[in-house]
Design goal:
With about 120 residues, this protein is mainly alpha-helical. The chain has one domain. The chain contains five helices and two strands. The protein has a two-stranded parallel sheet.
Length: about 120
């Protein structure tokens, strides 16, 4: 018989893919029309969905007094990396690796705590 799992029984690690805080000038955007808004709308919706999910998980884990069991790691600076998902050019791959290194360094304390938690809770 499986016990019912709740938030306090789970550790969630959320790895973000970075985000662009692109601003859209009214002078430029006012004449885009439906086709011109396709990509910006997708970016806005995806960013919004990630932020809402992060907010809800943060609140949920705080409510069960286990905020340390929800970890969000999100690059804050994409440097020279392109956000285009289909950009697998060698230059972009190198830039993305650099973003990963910088993010890992920036989140070193969080990653250390995560590693400690996983080691403490491993099952032989």
């Amino acid at each position: 018989m499986n016990p019912t799992l709740t938030a306090k029984d789970l550790l969630i690690v959320s790895l973000g893919t970075g985000s662009e805080n692109e601003q859209y000038s009214y002078k430029v955007a006012k004449d885009w029309g439906s086709i011109g808004w396709v990509r910006p709308i997708i970016d806005i919706m995806m960013s919004g969905a990630a932020e809402v999910t992060d907010y809800h998980l943060t609140k949920m884990y705080s409510a069960v007094n286990h905020p340390e069991q929800y970890i969000r790691i999100q690059p804050t600076d994409m440097g020279d990396a392109s956000m285009d998902m289909d950009n697998a050019s060698p230059r972009n791959m190198k830039a993305l690796r650099e973003v990963g290194k910088i993010t890992a360094t920036h989140c070193a304390d969080t990653l250390d705590k995560l590693a400690d938690t996983l080691i403490q809770n491993r099952r032989s």
